[in-house]
């Protein structure tokens, strides 16, 4: 039974302004002009003071709702993609992991094509994404959103994939088993996926050695098959065979 204060249950007070995740319910009127909604969302996300983190979380979720409702159009938004990315970038610097996770999710919905991805990389957002991957292991929600964003970047254009994020994935793949990192297998899977789409960047950063190292360490046959298939695929094609160094990777 809910404890009551002055005849009003605490549970009803808590549920009035927030949902179960702690996010503050921020109304979004989709009948308004999209540019007005976008201005309100970006202003609240970018404010340094006067807006609680849970309210920012609500506005970031409203950003995704607005994007799904209106589609990708700078004319309708009233803002350029650069301006939108600059505001969302501030969310990745927030002290609350929930806000950072929501910012990563908003970027994933925003990145639709190579043009937007290039703008994200030009504004050096990839370093903040790497920071989210490297952060302490307890922030699983944030790291999960970061890895989902990384996969979206590979899907959009793997040839634009930045070395900064590649380094973070490989670092987790190398050291994760010793630290009992629960994200290590996800990172290895993404490295394999990237190796098929952009083998050059994986090879230059030592990712192929990471894949083979995990073949030795992993005891699950199905995972080992997937890892070995990635290497064999690269060896099977003349234009990718050069990336597998016989004196380094194959020595393993």
TrEMBL record:
The Rapamycin-insensitive companion of mTOR N-terminal domain, residue ranges? 57-252
Return the Pfam families for the record: RICTOR_N (PF14664)
Q: Name one GO molecular function term.
A: protein serine/threonine kinase activator activity
One GO BP annotation is: TORC2 signaling
Checking SMART domains in the record gives: RICTOR_N
Q: Which GO terms describe its cellular component?
A: TORC2 complex
The UniProt family comment states:
Belongs to the RICTOR family.
From the Swiss-Prot or TrEMBL record, give the protein name.
Answer: Rapamycin-insensitive companion of mTOR N-terminal domain-containing protein
Taxonomic placement: Eukaryota, Metazoa, Chordata, Craniata, Vertebrata
